[in-house]
Amino acid sequence: MNKKTSLIALAAAAALVVVGSGAWWLGMQRGMGHNTPATAQVAASTTATATATATASEDPSLWTIPQGEEATRRHIRESLKAGDVDPVTGRRILNYHDPMVPGKNFEAPAKSPFMDMMLVPRYAGGDAADASSVTVSPRILQNLGLRTAQVVEVSLVSEVKAVGNVAWNERERVELSSRAMGFVEKLHVKAALDRVAAGAPLAELYVPDWVAAQEEYLALVRLTGDGTDSLQDAARQRMRQAGMTPAHIQRVVTSGQVQPRFTLTAPIAGIVSELMVREGATVMPGTTLMRLQGTRTVWAEGAVPESQAALLQPGARVRTTSPGAPGQTFEGQVQTLLPEVDAVTRTIRARVELSNPQGRLVPGMLVSMRLDRPKAATTLLVPSDAVIHTGRRSVVMVAEDGGRFRPVEVTAGLEVGGQTEISAGLQMGQRVVLSGQFLIDSEASLRGLEARLNQEPVPTSTASTQQRYTTDAVIDALSGDTVTLTHPPIPALKWPQMQMDFTLPPRAQQPRDLEAGDRLQIEFEMQDGDVPRITSLQRVAPEPGK
After folding, report:
1. What is the spatial order of strands in the sheet that 201-206 belongs to?
2. Under DSSP, is residue 221 helix (H, G, I), strand (E, B) or coil?
3. Where are the alpha helices (DSSP H) in 78-200?
4. Contacts 24+ apart (CB under 8 A), 508-517
């Protein structure tokens, strides 16, 4: 009996425990059912408000990747796409991209086709969001040590420097030759390169052929009577034909004696560059006896880079120094630019004529030349380090406010003294980057921007023929210079039928009184970082029955 009573008590206690546990669980579920919606609603509202406030107050370009992914999810929920204005940030959406795959842009928010993550939006008007420029943070700028310089407008007065060798002035070379058959009886110069003065005797020749002509003349002089004067003139003419110089003929006339020997004198001061005869030699008419080289002036031929040859003109002043004549400066002028270019060194030889009053300059000497360039008009100048020649164009990286950088194509001119002339592309007062241009270019590449040093401009003719599309459309709304259209599918762009914004052409190219509901035929082209731009449009008559 006691055992049976114990079993009943245990069963009752177990039932009480089960009933109590069930009641506690039911109460908790009811309490959670009443409280959870309100709590979740308050928490969600607080989070959304904080997110909207933080988003509206921050620059979207400074978002982290999770923040960008959350914005893309919101765009999907709100049916936003490229070209729309985000109501939270107040900025137009340019495109969407995967931060892990730079350079690939998308028009609609979606999941990345490359990574297990959402695409991230890029906005217009934000720092580093402009497709034509890139922004670098101050911390990175400090780490890179970027240097900039200002574009200035000055007159480029410069001089061209060249190194050359001295050579004889060939225009002061004289060749002495025999006028008749004779014999060299005596030489006053014994070797080549002997210096001689103007009028100095060089050689004495015995010319037998002149003896007969002189004797004939002297015999006629002794005759008296009518007609002798004409005979004497004829005799003097024969002496000239025999090769006698006027001075030698006058000596015969004055002395009244035969002068068979002839003294050859130097017509100019200089050196005997070549000596072809010796004493006792027999010479014939036309035989070269020696050559004289004048030393009053010399030539110096310097190699000038072909890029600087345009700076020089004949007659330009030249100042020259030589290690062979220390402390002495030789003045001269550019005589000519020789019409040939060295294919290896890409230089042009400038022939300079230098005065050499003391004969210090001789062939083979090395000279340093400074060739003055005529004063040029004022032009824009930038340091040569700022100009990057890509092979197809010349580009400089312009530094703008707020740490923004933009590549600009320029037309580069002459480069002198570390400065380069800029004839087009820049304005006075702009600042250009001297170092780190390729690091900025890499930053633009990582962000998928068009601000690239090697970005080739698309020719206008190509853009107008390859990037224009035609379609029918219906006006849904007009707002300033923007029109909202609904268009059918466009196979060339793989676009489905949809409603989107376009930029209108100038007012003069629009039909009058456009309004919602009008049917149009439009031609448009794509714009980088903006909505498509209509290049031409015309109103189409409504379809029959509508």
Report:
1. 261-265, 201-206, 182-187, 282-283
2. helix
3. 138-144
4. 509/536, 509/537, 510/537, 511/537, 511/538, 511/539, 514/475, 514/478, 514/483, 514/539, 515/475, 515/478, 516/475, 516/476, 516/477, 516/478, 517/474, 517/475
Say if residue 9's pLDDT is above 70. Answer: no
What does the alpha-carbon distance between residue 53 and residue 55 come to, in Å, rounded to a whole number? 5
CB-based contacts of 34, cutoff 8 Å, min separation 6: none
The H-assigned helical ranges of 168-292 are: 209-222, 228-241, 246-255
pLDDT tens-place string over residues 61-114: 678 888 888 989 999 988 888 888 888 888 888 888 887 776 677 888 888 877
Q: How many angstroms separate the CA atoms of 229 and 231, rounded? A: 5
Across 21-35, 190-204, 398-412, 460-474, the highest mean pLDDT is recorded for 190-204
Rounded Cα–Cα distance for residues 406 and 130 (Å): 10
According to the per-residue pLDDT averaged within each range, which of 42-46, 154-158, 292-296, 338-342 is highest?
292-296
Residue with the two structure tokens 């695409």: 119
CA distance 171 to 298: 10
Query: Long-range contacts made by residues 271-276, C-beta under 8 angstroms, separation at least 24?
Result: 271/193, 271/194, 271/195, 271/196, 271/295, 272/189, 272/191, 272/192, 272/193, 272/194, 272/196, 272/202, 273/168, 273/173, 273/192, 273/193, 274/192, 275/189, 275/191, 275/192
Q: Which two tokens stand for residue 465?
A: 């023929």
Q: How many residues does the chain have?
A: 546
Q: Do 444 and 452 meet the contact criterion of CB atoms below 8 Å apart?
A: yes
Give the separation between CA 78 and CA 88, rounded to whole angstroms: 11
Query: What integer pLDDT is reported at residue 23 of this predicted model?
Result: 44
Q: Is 91 exposed, middle or buried (0-12, 13-18, 19+ CB in 10 A)?
A: middle
Instruction: Please calculate the CA angle 511-512-518 and round it to the nearest 5 degrees.
Output: 70
Q: Are 524 and 533 in contact (CB under 8 A)?
A: yes
Least Cα distance to 517 among 475, 471, 485, 487 occurs for 475
How far, CA to CA in Å, does 202 sit from each of 271, 278, 493?
Answer: 11, 12, 95
Nearest to 340 by CA among 309, 379, 295: 309
| Beta partners for residue 133, in sequence order | none
Cα–Cα distance for residue pair 217/239, rounded to 1 Å? 8
Report yes or no: 321 and 285 within 8 Å, Cβ to Cβ.
no
pLDDT of residue 443: 60
Tell me: pLDDT of 1 over 50: no
